[in-house]
Design brief:
With about 350 residues, the chain is α/β, with parallel strands linked by helices. The chain has two domains: about 140 residues, HAD superfamily/HAD-like (Rossmann fold, 3-Layer(aba) Sandwich); about 200 residues, 3-Layer(aba) Sandwich (Aminopeptidase). Helix content is about 30%, strand content about 25%. An eight-stranded mixed β-sheet has the order 15-16-14-13-12-11-9-17, with helices on both faces. Helix 3 crosses helix 4. It starts with a strand and ends with a strand.
């Protein structure tokens, strides 16, 4: 077990003129796509790294050229306007719902890189002359490439579709959620789940109770341990699969259950499923007559998990600068949301 130290990029934000293509589009519409940019986009996409655009350009003209080059499907939430690029990068980060320190920005202009770097110092800024080197950067090389990695862009595209329909929906949110036909499955992690489980610990920062990463080998030992339960969750709806989106490491010693790690993918934050895994663990502990505790390492980004524990009737019993120990008296029974079909697989 180790704290998160090595940064991993989740999204690369591209400038267009003299970066994605050679030339300035508003001066000459016959710009040419840079082959090294195309190869970099496809390579990183296959690793589960997303792409977007922050460009000072005319939106319709630029998007038409991107579509002509066959790249429209690769760019999520493109920001093509005359605003400072740092504003565009920050907006993309919020829309994708990832940490600012997981963004890389590629631009040919030193001024634009400096502007982004000054406003957003955690962003990795890259000169467009170095595009061919980008796939070899350590920040761009996940340890494992899972099925969820390969499908990540398609999952986000499905999320964009869901969000569009939700924004147009007239009625209570629970009615919209019920119409999604969501199925939330919790199961014991199997050997084939471990690569994705490690990836979740590395990539998930905001909805992560400790911020610790666990290696494949560590997770495999927990999976086989008589004193631990390693649970993984997946979510599907009528638009497709969200993939494996939740992980719990539970230590079980005699009549004491301790949640050592609880995390959820940020992509499901708005789906009203955040309490399902906690409620399942509370049900398990109640059934076994065990005391239920939980460890949390508060950080600047995981405040939401503290709130989640509090709403689930956990109370602090110990607290220091770096750690909070919660306990749940298990007297309050909370049902799973009616708009989700919860399946527990042994």
């Amino acid at each position: 077990m180790k704290p998160i130290e090595e940064r991993k990029i989740k999204c690369v934000v591209w400038d267009l003129d003299n970066t994605l293509w050679d030339g300035v589009l508003l001066e000459d519409k016959n710009v040419t796509l840079r082959q090294e940019a195309l190869e970099t986009i496809k390579t990183l996409d296959s690793r589960g790294i997303l792409h977007s655009v922050a460009s000072k350009n005319d939106f319709d003209t630029a998007m038409s050229k991107i579509e002509e080059f066959g790249l429209k499907e690769y760019f999520l939430y493109p920001k093509i306007n005359w605003n400072p690029k740092s504003d565009s990068v920050l907006e993309i980060t919020k829309l994708i719902n990832i940490g600012i320190d997981t963004i890389a920005f590629i631009d040919d202009q030193p001024f634009e890189r400096d502007e982004v770097s000054y406003a957003l110092p955690d962003v990795l800024c890259i000169d467009s002359l170095d595009i061919s080197k980008v796939p070899r950067l350590p920040e761009m090389m996940p340890r494992f490439i899972t099925e969820d990695s390969k499908n990540r862009r398609h999952m986000y595209m499905a999320d964009i579709c869901r969000n569009k329909i939700e924004n147009e929906f007239k009625g209570p949110q629970e009615e919209f959620l019920a119409g999604l036909n969501m199925v939330f499955t919790i199961s014991k992690a199997k050997e084939e789940d471990l690569k994705r489980a490690e990836e979740l610990t590395v990539r998930t920062h905001q909805l992560n109770t400790t911020g610790y990463t666990y290696s494949y080998e560590e997770l495999d030992r927990f999976r086989k341990s008589d004193n631990h339960k390693l649970l993984i969750a997946s979510l599907t709806d009528k638009y497709g699969s969200y993939g494996k989106i939740g992980l719990v490491l539970l230590e079980c010693v005699e009549n004491l259950y301790t949640i050592k790690l609880l995390l959820m993918s940020c992509r499901v934050m708005s789906r009203g499923v955040g309490s399902i895994m906690i409620n399942h663990i509370r049900n398990m502990a109640r059934k076994e007559g065990a005391v239920l505790r939980a460890i949390m390492v508060p950080s600047e980004v995981n405040r939401m998990m503290y709130v989640t524990y509090k709403f689930s009737h956990f109370t602090e019993i110990e607290e220091s600068d770096s750690l909070v120990l919660f306990e749940n008296d298990l007297t309050t029974v909370q049902d799973f949301p009616e708009y989700v079909d919860v399946k527990i697989v042994d």
